[in-house]
Amino acid sequence: MKLTTMTQVTVDGVMQGNGGASDEDRRSGFERGGWARGKGDNETRTFINQTYARADAFLFGRRTYEIFARGWGVMDRGSHPIADALNTKPKYLASTTIADPQWADTTVLSGDLAAAIGEMKADPAGELQVHGSGALIRWLLANDLVDEMTLVIVPVVVGQGMRLFPDTGPDIALDLVDSRADSKGVTIQIYRPTGRPQYAS
Q1: On the chain, which terminus has fewer CB atoms closer than 10 Å, C or N?
Q2: Secondary structure (H, E, C), 48-97
Q3: Model confidence over 93-126: pLDDT tens digits?
Q4: 2-193 has which fold?
């Protein structure tokens, strides 16, 4: 199973609090939430919807899981393509603090996460998608478990907040698979990790 990630980020790499509510994630005094709301044109929204629709399963970190369960998880079938995908396909939760998730069709992965994901990836078919879940994505990248990553880059610099890539972390070479820009300046970059970068001597 191919493991893919899709993350909305600002030009300065922030992923925190991108959603519709300004108070979605106020950790560490973050006050600039909702920066992705209303950004992107119909073509970008269609791309995002189609990405969710093609997933065979979803993998979440705890915080994103809780946010998604409160929002998408309570929506009626047919109300939104993303809700339909999330509410009809298996969800896996990487958490040591949630033992009894209330969102239907959720399996908690609380043991050896690398082994559990490796077992899923051994299936030659399908796509396991990660949305949001910054800490989880950083861990997946550090453990060479990501096959493809999509960055939806919103043309704004927010100047504070948690970034997708930490100040110190693993170095990763990337192949650009696809790149596009929409009519509102949102760009979509799809990358495939290819090991460590080469540096000039």
Answers
A1: C
A2: HHHHHHHCCEEEEEHHHHHHHHHHHHHCCCCCCHHHHHHHHCCEEEECCC
A3: 999 899 889 999 999 998 899 999 999 999 889 9
A4: Dihydrofolate Reductase, subunit A (3.40.430)
Single-letter amino acid code for the residue at 129 = Q
Q: Which residue has the tokens 């809700």?
A: 83
CB 117 within 8 A of CB 3: yes
